[in-house]
Design brief:
By secondary structure, the protein is an alpha+beta fold. The chain has helices at 52-61, 110-121, 128-131, 159-164, 171-174, 232-241, 251-257, 261-266, 292-300, 304-312, 341-350, 380-394, 407-415, 435-438, 455-465, 470-487; strands at residues 32-37, 66-68, 75-77, 80-85, 91-96, 137-144, 147-152, 195-201, 205-210, 223-228, 246-248, 267-272, 276-282, 317-318, 363-364, 367-368, 370-376, 399-405, 421-427, 490-492, 494-495, 498-503, 506-507, 522-523. Among the domains are: 62-172, Dipeptide-binding Protein, domain 1 (Alpha-Beta Complex); 276-495, Dipeptide-binding Protein, Domain 3 (Dipeptide-binding Protein, domain 3, Roll), CATH 3.10.105.10.
């Protein structure tokens, strides 16, 4: 897996992360980086990981054959020294670097690639979000100890990114007859990356240390400590005291709590956008949300601009679809769903939701419009958003009950489709393919949690995957964007900028197109 896992495209939700550090003038060892985690990862197995926290940590431990250049976004070598692509774009042959070793000693070879692919495709492996990108990989063949070849059944415009970016796990560790999903090394990862796992203290911290036998350039940082702190305000105070090295700031913290001369003297404040969007998802299997008119009506009842200004101090970009807002695939001709409660009420009435018994609650076929809104606990934005929605919906006769769950329970309910409506965020990739989120084949077990089913959308996604002419692919995705807008499986909210506070005891802290890269940071001497 590369530094930015292409498979946790996925990932996570309302919890945005950032690499970071803290007031180094105090109690942190100068070569140690202390990062803040606001929730605990579920696993450190890159094949089954789904959220940003897992990808954040695994990105320092595991590597893939290729990765993205952080500024040009072109694919460049990582564990592969080079590759060849057949003229028909069906065969991808990778020549592995020699002398690369897993952190416990054995050499990384083609056998690890073959094993990883077998596990990836195994129906028993809990990684449907990963499998979706390998549907057309027919086989992976070992040519020799340092050469492998991926054979596709049909071309795919992102083939190099995904076969080259496939999560790679050590065969000698996992191929022991133990269930892969519950293997002990899901909490004791062994990788080839610049850092290796040291310790996991549940509920407290995860520690990585420099991999002294790393094949590549070694980073200046010798240890990374991920401190698990659920409360964001506490994390900011720890940053100021020198107990953390980086914190991802909330909007109010960015605007009101980190602008003093003392703070700016000791910390960098960085703001940048990566592919992500916040949304409200409506479960189309529930009778309340099976009609697109209802979903659109709810969009008209939500004053997104006011929410952006009130909850996020205007720090964000309103979006209308899932594509990265600064990419060619994002259709700028699609207009925002305007705040118009009267139009919303008319659409609800057209869909059959009326207050027939005069009790103040809309009903249809004997059922009250009363649903639950699921949010992860500990996320202030979600809680405040839910309160606003509850009040606004009640004005038109809709009852909304707010249910909060701890992250692990929340994710389980999400994957089991045990919700009416939910608010989350997707952290997507730069390359556009929306198949994982929206294709009907992903509705039962994949990431299409809201059960979006549309034959034209399916057809577009299938065609786009084999379209190598970018201009034609852009047209396909622009039409797809229009369909998503018309159907409103999500009420799209905002693209959220990353807001980072980072200690100035580190130099060479750069913002690349893909974000930050701690491997290039230089540790200053303590003050």
């Amino acid at each position: 897996m590369s530094k930015k896992s292409y498979h946790t495209i996925l990932a996570a939700a309302l919890f945005f992360f950032i690499t970071g550090l803290s007031g180094g003038y105090s109690r942190i060892h100068p070569s140690t980086l202390v990062e803040h985690l606001s929730a605990e990862p579920g696993t450190l197995n890159p094949m089954t990981a789904t959220d940003a926290y897992e990808g954040m940590i695994n990105g320092h431990i595991y590597e893939a054959l290729v990765e993205r250049d952080r500024d040009t976004l072109e694919m460049i070598p990582r564990l592969a020294e080079r590759w060849t692509i057949s003229p028909d774009k069906m065969r991808f042959r990778f020549f592995l670097k020699k002398g690369v070793r897993w952190s416990d000693g054995p050499e990384f070879t083609a056998d690890d690639i073959i094993y990883s692919f077998r596990v990836l495709k195994d129906p028993k492996t809990a990684n449907s979000h990963v499998k979706v990108y390998y549907l057309d990989v027919q086989s992976v063949e070992k040519i020799d100890r340092y050469t492998v070849e991926f054979l596709y059944s049909r071309p795919y415009y992102l083939a190099l990114e995904f076969c080259g970016g496939m999560p790679v796990v050590p065969k000698h560790i996992f191929d022991d007859g133990t269930d892969f999903n519950t293997h002990k090394n899901n909490r004791l990862p062994i990788g080839t990356g610049p850092f290796k796992f040291q310790k996991w203290e549940t509920g407290k911290r995860i520690i990585l240390e420099a991999n002294e036998n790393y094949w590549g350039r070694k980073p200046g940082i010798k240890k990374i400590i991920y401190k698990i702190v659920m409360e964001q305000n506490v994390a900011l105070q720890m940053l100021k005291k020198g107990e953390l090295d980086v914190v991802a700031l909330r909007e109010i913290q960015w605007v009101r709590q980190t602008g003093s001369p003392k703070f700016t003297e000791n910390f960098y404040k960085l703001k940048y956008y990566q592919p992500n969007f916040r949304y409200i998802g409506w479960n189309a299997k529930r009778p309340f949300f099976s009609d697109s008119r209802v979903r659109l009506a709810l969009g008209h009842l939500i004053n997104r601009k006011a929410i952006l200004d009130k909850l996020m101090f205007g720090l964000g970009e309103m979006v209308t679809g899932n594509f990265y807002i600064f990419s060619k695939y994002y259709n700028k001709n699609v207009k925002q769903v305007e705040y118009d409660p009267e139009k919303g009420k008319r659409l609800l009435s057209e869909a059959g939701w009326r207050d027939t018994d005069n009790d103040g609650i809309l009903d249809r076929d004997g059922r009250k419009f009363s649903f639950t809104f699921m949010i992860p606990s500990g996320t202030e934005f979600s809680e405040r958003l839910a309160s606003i929605l509850k009040e606004d919906f009640s004005k038109v006769g809709i009852e909304m009950d707010i249910r909060k769950y701890e992250w692990a329970v929340f994710v389980n309910k999400l994957h089991n489709r045990e919700f009416d409506a939910v608010t989350l965020a997707w952290g997507l990739g730069y390359s556009g393919d929306p198949y994982q989120l929206w294709h009907s084949s992903q509705a039962e077990k994949g990431s299409n949690f809201c059960n979006f089913i549309n034959s034209e959308a399916d057809d577009i996604m299938d065609k786009a995957r084999v379209e190598f002419d970018e201009s034609k692919r852009v047209k396909l995705y622009h039409r797809f964007h229009e369909i998503i807008y018309d159907e409103q499986p999500y009420t799209f909210l905002f693209a959220k900028p990353t807001l980072a506070a980072i200690s100035k005891r580190f130099d060479n802290v750069k913002v690349h197109v893909t974000g930050l890269n701690i491997d290039e940071w230089i540790v200053r001497l303590e003050k």
